[in-house]
Design goal:
heterodimer; A: mainly alpha; about 65% helix; about 0% strand; B: alpha+beta; five-stranded mixed beta sheet; about 35% strand
């Protein structure tokens, strides 16, 4: 990507540094977007390698490859790396690249802060991954870091907490930047209700980030002082309560899961209209549905902890509030299907991933409704059913949407079409094996296999073997994704400015590859540029 | 944020300073809110009895309700010792049938098995949670630190009244203590000797 973008930059920006300095000092939203995406891809492979360690150990009952302590470190680190290192930076990278181009802005509102937001991350993850090589090992109490267990490990906890602080600071700065860009830098005529849905979902996601990342920072700071400075927030002997941590953590944690999915909703809402050659159905209801999901995410946290014991009234409240989320989510799925209805559909790779998202995310959503039912939750809590549920919404949800977005916008970024044949092979390979990987885990959970355990009873053997085979096939299949991106960056069929026949929106009015500086003079946005036909003013 | 609804046609690139300022303030406020959840949670548990919290000592004079001799409630006594504390700790009676509104006394026995003085601190909880607001203790060893010398043994009393307003249908109440080592007080004690 690097070579193609420099070739087009404007003359009066000719002093642009080259080599490493170009990337270290860059304040350009497209270059920083690329940095985020490359970093995210690297972390996706690191986190994936950890997942393969887990699946290799679980291929057969008994302890074969790794000791239980290391297994626990793998489950913990896999989650932290995938959530904070792969999915969140991928979405921020996409926002960096696309939000200014979609609203007709020349760059992000705060370019220097943008540079800082990104460059904190490699340090944070170096610190986090370095704990693997420390005498006390990486964190092993699960990514939720529940006390008292998380406080009984070694001193490496301090590094983990500082790394989480840095990731939080990076996310908050990124979120402030995105909101400031969207609210202050829209081109003339780009009213809020003309904005593409990806911009809308990111605006709402950014508010969620600012609201809850500081709460996580507070929770882990309390862990830090409990462990090293003698406070007793969560220490029962000193009058504290470990359950309090779970409440604070999930007050962050539930909005966090929507931070991981709302931008995916935005991406799918861009792709489906393009390949259906129809405007998005129910644009306004999509905006309101996203906002309601964001609001509801603040009042459902205790459904993660029904089994700690709480009054019946509280369980009923959290159960019903959780189920209500299915309503705005259902509105979205209905709108996507209605957008496709009687459209002139074609099935290029981005569309395939978007359709895969709609079908498979819905499976994850439905198992989520099952988990919301309190008596059923008592049975499913901390089993592989939960693991299957959140991997359907995060892998076939968030990760599929990110892949769809990469295929969708890659021609805009590089100026070349990717290899469509390989893209389709990547989609079908991923979709088949990801289901082989995660679907059997539903049955394992219903049969009572607990999560985060390196060994299991022999009756779980067959489904674990199937799941592990799926895991390895899916995992190594992602190397094809890396190859397709690399090949597309290096060359390929020249992409037009519009790239896709049905594509609408400002990002498709600039040449491909997008020059380093776009919209130095703001475009005038009229109804015919807007991406939808719903209640335009 | 305040200018988000104004017409963007008039001024396409406004200064983001105000937006950034208010969002930064929001981030700091939410950090504070995380800490505010600690006292809020304590208060919430105190009011609702969630977490089996039993509250502080109640004076005997304040409990004026007449004993309800027609009703019988079984109280189950339970004890757990944290592994860091080298003590034995158990109730002298496992079960006791009581009438709500009447004052009862029982004892727990603690024995220091180590060869040095250790300070322990007991933390009570009552189960089921809905009973915890109706279990009043007029005297309890859990209100103070307990010092036991090497090999020392002590009977530690608990005086309690079950409130007659205990919800109907609750016939078994468990009073559970976990006793922990108080590291700081033990260290002070060791330094003084």
């Amino acid at each position: 990507m690097s070579n193609t973008t420099t070739a087009h930059h404007d003359d009066h920006h000719g002093e642009h540094p080259t080599g490493l300095a170009r990337w270290v000092f860059s304040t350009n939203h497209k270059e920083i977007g690329t940095l985020y995406l490359v970093f995210s891809l690297a972390m996706f492979l690191v986190g994936g390698a950890m997942a393969l360690v887990i699946r290799a150990e679980l291929f057969a009952p008994g302890l074969q490859l790794v000791n239980p302590e290391f297994f626990n470190q793998m489950t913990t680190m896999h989650a932290l790396v995938m959530i904070f290192g792969a999915v969140m930076p991928a979405f921020v990278g996409l926002a960096n690249w696309m939000v200014p181009m979609m609203i007709g802005a020349p760059d992000m509102a705060l370019p220097r802060m943008n540079n800082w937001s990104f460059w904190i991350l490699p340090f944070a993850f170096t610190m986090l991954l370095a704990t693997l090589f420390m005498p006390s090992g990486a964190p092993a109490a699960g990514w939720t870091l529940y006390p008292p267990l998380s406080l009984q490990g070694g001193n490496s906890l301090a590094f983990v907490i500082l790394a989480i602080h840095l990731m939080g600071i990076s996310s908050i700065m990124g979120a402030i930047n995105i909101i400031a860009t969207i609210l202050n830098m829209r081109a003339p005529g780009m009213t809020l209700l003309r904005m593409p849905l990806f911009v809308w979902t990111w605006l709402i996601t950014a508010f969620l980030l600012i609201a809850v990342m500081p709460v996580l920072a507070g929770a882990v700071t309390m862990l830090l002082t409990d462990r090293f400075f003698g406070t007793s927030f969560f220490n029962a002997a000193g009058g504290g309560d470990p359950v309090l941590y779970q409440h604070i953590f999930w007050f962050f944690g539930h909005p966090e899961v929507y931070i991981l999915i709302l931008p995916a909703f935005g991406i799918v809402s861009e792709i489906i209209p393009t390949f259906s050659r129809k405007p998005l159905f129910g644009y306004t209801s999509m905006v309101y549905a996203t906002a309601s999901i964001a609001f509801l995410s603040f009042i459902v946290w205790a459904h993660h902890m029904f089994t700690v014991g709480m009054p019946l009234g509280a369980m009923l409240f959290f159960m019903y509030a959780t189920m209500v989320i299915a309503v705005p989510t259902g509105v979205k799925i209905f709108n996507w299907i209605a957008t496709m209805w009687r459209g002139s559909m074609t099935f290029e790779t981005p569309m395939l991933f978007a359709l895969g998202f709609v079908v498979l995310f819905t499976i994850g959503g439905l198992s989520g409704v099952m988990l919301a039912i309190v008596p059923a939750n008592f049975q499913y809590h901390d089993t592989y059913f939960v693991v299957a549920h959140f991997h359907y919404v995060l892998v076939t949800g968030a990760v599929f949407a990110i892949m769809a977005a990469v295929y969708y916008w890659l021609p805009k970024w590089t100026g070349h079409m990717y290899d469509e044949k390989l893209g389709k092979i990547h989609f079908w390979w991923s979709t088949i094996w990801v289901n082989v990987l995660f679907f059997p885990q539903h049955y394992l959970g219903l049969a009572g296999m607990p999560r985060r355990i390196p060994d299991y009873a022999v009756q779980f053997t067959e489904f674990n073997m199937i799941s592990s085979i799926g895991g390895f096939m899916y995992g190594f299949g992602q190397l094809l994704f890396v190859y397709i991106i690399w090949k597309c960056v290096r060359g390929g069929e020249k992409a037009t400015a519009q790239v896709w026949e049905g594509a609408r929106g400002l990002e498709w009015t600039v040449p491909s590859p997008a020059p380093l500086h776009t919209f130095d003079t703001p475009p005038l946005v009229e109804d015919n540029v807007a991406v939808h036909r719903d209640r335009l003013t | 944020m305040s200018n988000s609804t104004s017409d963007p046609k008039s001024n396409p690139t406004r200064s983001p300073i105000r937006t950034v300022g208010s969002l930064t303030a929001l981030a700091f406020a939410m950090f504070g809110f995380g800490y505010l959840l600690v006292p809020l949670y304590d208060k919430f548990c105190e009011i609702t009895g969630i977490g089996g919290r039993t509250g502080d000592a109640v004076s005997e004079e304040a409990l004026t309700a007449a004993p309800d001799l027609s009703r019988k409630v079984t109280v189950h006594f339970d004890a757990t010792v944290n592994s860091a504390l080298p003590w034995r700790f158990e109730p002298t009676e496992r079960m006791m049938d009581v009438h709500p509104g009447k004052l009862y006394e029982t004892t727990y026995v603690a024995f220091n098995q180590s060869d040095r003085a250790v300070v322990g601190q007991a933390v009570p909880s009552v189960s089921p949670g809905r009973a915890s607001l109706f279990f009043n203790k007029t005297e309890c060893f859990c209100f103070t630190e307990q010092i036991l010398g090497p090999g020392e043994s002590r009977d530690m009393p608990v005086r309690f009244i079950v409130d007659p307003n205990l919800p109907q249908g609750t016939s078994l109440v468990t009073l559970s203590y976990i006793i922990y080592k108080n590291d700081e007080a033990t260290a002070v004690l060791a330094a003084a000797n």
